[in-house]
Amino acid sequence: MKLFSWVTKDTNIDFLKPRKWTGIFSVLMIALSLYSIAVKGFNYGIDFSGGILIELKSNEPINPETMRAQLNQLGLDEVTLQTIGENGDELMLRVQGDGSDEESQRAMLAQIRQTLGDGYEYRRVESVGPQVGNELKRDGMLASIVAILAISAYIWFRFEWQFALGALISLFNDLIVTLGLISFLDFDFSLTTVAAILTLAGYSVNDTVVTYDRIRENLRKYKKMPLYDLLNKSVNDILSRTILTGLTTLFASLALLIWGGDTLRSFSFTIFFGVIVGTYSSIYIATAFLSMFDLRRTQEAQKDVNPFGNA
Known about the structure:
The protein has 311 residues and is α+β, with helices and mostly antiparallel strands. It has helices at residues 19-39, 46-49, 64-72, 102-116, 130-158, 161-184, 191-221, 227-237, 239-259, 261-290, 295-305; strands spanning 43-44, 51-58, 79-84, 90-96, 120-128, 188-189. The protein has a 4-stranded antiparallel beta sheet with strand order 3-4-2-5, sandwiched between helices. The protein has a two-stranded parallel ribbon with strand order 1-6. β3 (79-84) and β4 form a beta hairpin.
């Protein structure tokens, strides 16, 4: 495509020039994200907090605002209404009930049925109690921790310690900043969000590994090139891959964000924003971090220990 023909051309952009300012910016973003997570916390969805999910169908188009006005009279906790289908006659209703037990949820469901009347077909009714919600929250956090530890172990054995530490710092930045923005913007935090976070972790590490592989390749190829120039060249070498891969993911997640509805909004936003943060961190955190070390001396020392080099 002529629109992207410029991407395949050789570039010589000095990515590392603003590394001091980007370092300060990254630290500031992490601090603000941690503050939002600690002070504001997360808006846990039904998966974690408990509540009721109802899927309705009517013989005529449903007006969500009219239904919301009816339900507001019951004094329920947070109510989310989402029109589904093409004709507007189907609707998904979610009532979040923090700490409500099963008996309270049954009473809540009876009130909703009585208020809405008999003009609806209840196609799907699900309820998540507080105990199940706490178990899902615990299992979701455990799955995330195990996945991140496994990724960290792979990085540590895959690269020299400078590369491994830079990749872990980059991954930490991506996850914390993304979680902080989810907290700040009050997006639903559910099992779908956990899946998006794990997807983001995999994408971020993959992007960093590709960059690091090119840096190690250039370290062997250009023996006398200054490290600063070599790092810039490595990023420029894979710039077309970074842009095309990132744009493809961004367009797909943007489509989900616009047309995916409330159910996929948290997931698509996490992927969309995470791709931007992950691309930024692979250059201005993971790569810039390596400029602080004498990688050639480390490489020569490893050759003395292992004459076959690092695989």
